[in-house]
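re: ur question from earlier - yeah i can do the single chain one, its not a big deal. heres the input i used so u can compare w yours
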Amino acid sequence: MSQSTPISIPLLHGRYRIEEQLGAGRLAVVYRAYDERLQRQVLVHMLRKELLGQEALRQRFIQEAHSNARRSHQSLLEVFDSGEIAGRPYMITEYVAGRTLRELGALSLEEALLYFRQLVGAVAAAQAAGVPHPPITANNVILVEDGHVELLENWRTSAAEVALDAACYRAPERTAGGPATSAAAVYSLGLLLIEMLTGRRVIEGDDPRAVAQAHLSARIPRLSEIRPLLYSPALDELIQLATARDPSQRTPDATSLGAALDALRRDLSGDTRRLDRPPVQPPGLRERINRSTGRMAAPRSIARPEPAAVPRRAYTGQSRRRSIAGMAIVLAMLTVFACAGYYGISVALDRLTNFELPRPALDLPALPDLGIDWPSWLTGVVGGRGQVLVVTGVPDEGLNLRAGPGLNMQVVALLPNTTRVRALDGPRVVDGVPWMHVRATIADQDVEGWASLNFLKPE
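and the output i got, formated as tokens:
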């Protein structure tokens, strides 16, 4: 959504070369610039021209620039410089680009907790320093690289969208006229975590005032009610404490929320143990004899009635359903194995002889709904072996192709946007990020490596 709009000062203070206007926030217009001295890209935030005559807003911009310089966290924009030119204040920060959490939609539990912990830490750092932090919304969180997010005031959001965006996360006491407290930020974080795990907001609408008023009476549902397959009582409890309507019953600040989140992550990643079983008394001699002969004996003094004959037809319907289900499973597996064999042979020929067999798009019948949690290799998830994917949504530098799955693995190449790759293996989740083993052609040379599946889409 960027637009090429040069300003009258192409080189700011003989150092920052303005390249393009990216957008505008509440107070500032944001430009992409190049630091000629340190040879790096930066962001230039300049007070909007129409606000120059409003001294209160001008002082607010200057104060926010000074406050931002005092806070320090890897998920908050780092301030490099600030000043004033021709009576217009400005601030220089690090350059970031990427997709918002709102654009990413629902995340896996591992990804959501990884990103959420960074956001909680950023808010806790701002609260500890006694300085404001950017509004907590999914549009203000940008995934800038594999496994790393930044909380900032999104300059691509219009003024009308900003008001509605903030209302979806506003704490009830803020709507009632209360101050912006640490507990109010925790409420917003709790709603954001629900959205990260489900892909939708708990409270939304078209009117900012109506949405804000809804927080005064709305019941925040448990996560298990929205996403039943994600059953975690400890996670449900953490969210309920963070989103309590009464601030006195809510997690008090981001530091406390971070401690609770760390305990939850340790519990989720801990080893399981055997369940305790009650002691069982060893069987007596008569019971052992009866088990070996397959019948139950009764005392001789008590007459045993003959058991009533069970009609064989009582189990005919259940047996028939089981047979049909078994046949459906076998047919589905045979179909998938045949397709997988054909695609595997075509991929092998393509790789060894550069001869690619035709691979028509197969419209396979949907697997029957038998109450079975079908595995991903039967359902055809994104990123299957041999599938052609396209790199999309990465910053200007390109998507890192690494020697193995993991953020600490060596980078072997850069894949620009729109690069076509072929999936070879995966996905594998390492460091909270899904990775795909792919092969691509760059400068007429074939390269292989592991890339983040967050930036790979089906062709």
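The longest strand covers residues 420-430. not sure if urs matches, ping me
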